[in-house]
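Exercise 7.
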Amino acid sequence: MPFISVIVPVYNVEKYITRCVESLTGQSFQDYEILLIDDGSTDKSGILCDEIEKGYDEVKTYHKRNGGLASARNYGLKCAEGKYVVFVDSDDWVTDDFLEFIYNHLNANPVDILKYGFQRVSDNKLGEVIVPYYDEGIYKKAQIKSDILPGAIGPIQLFNYDKNALMSACTCAYSTSFLKKNNISFVSERKILNEDHLFNFHALLCADKVEVTHKILYLYDFREGSLSKCYINQMVERKIELIKTYKNLLDKYKVFSEFEEEYYSQCVDSFYACITNECGNWGKNRKFKEISKKVYGILKNPNCKMALKKCKHNNLTLKGYIIYYLMKFKMSKSIVWLYIKMKG
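Solution. The predicted structure, written as tokens, is:
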């Protein structure tokens, strides 16, 4: 049994997959396996995966019908044989000490989840460093509930993203047995949005012990054309499905009453993301009136109205208060105008 299984979902990334794998195979730590999950690629990615597999005993390639990122990761989880599992997206890469650092920490102090930081890279230039906002150290069940879960369920402060809970699956190492024991898997991004956040949310609700480090181990290629920079279709419907699933999990683990404000803050943040998704499409054959109408429709949603009423909104910045009250009073035209002015 390898100590670490590295799951790499692959879909149409022929320009990047070699860089990703070489960042893993070039490490000093050797007790690992790499699972390349070709998710029905239509370019040469699948062929490249097969060629890479021939050169390394640690690399295994699997081909499957296209099902999306969540489907590929879940497939990898079923095949993983390692004691711990990590996820690396095929267009990203890792630091030289990625595997060794994870091994040293988890071998010395076994935990359910190890959280670490990442750095953005844009046009081959190192950018913003992002680490979990909580202090470094090992958190047991009670501390997870008091110190980590509130910021994982909802933003610490609405409309302020300086404190990052780091809910990406690519910034965590997980105990494989822990994930399987608690039936934690990814929900398809074709059904919901923020499948990483939901996966980690579920994991944190179940975890008995979590370690947090501010060490940077992951390099995220933030480039034009990436999913995070695209207009998202059917975002409202998928966000609503997401927050329903959050609620179901909080009810399942009987903690909804303890985290009600945080939950509704997450709902408000989700609807605000839908609004910025519409506003961000300004100038792409879409007129002010059309976008304002879309935003007004979001603000009229009963789930949005309920969330604005019940969320935590007594600690906002001036900018936060402005956004909150514009949303509460459905001032869609003002929201769109302000967004365009701020971005323009």
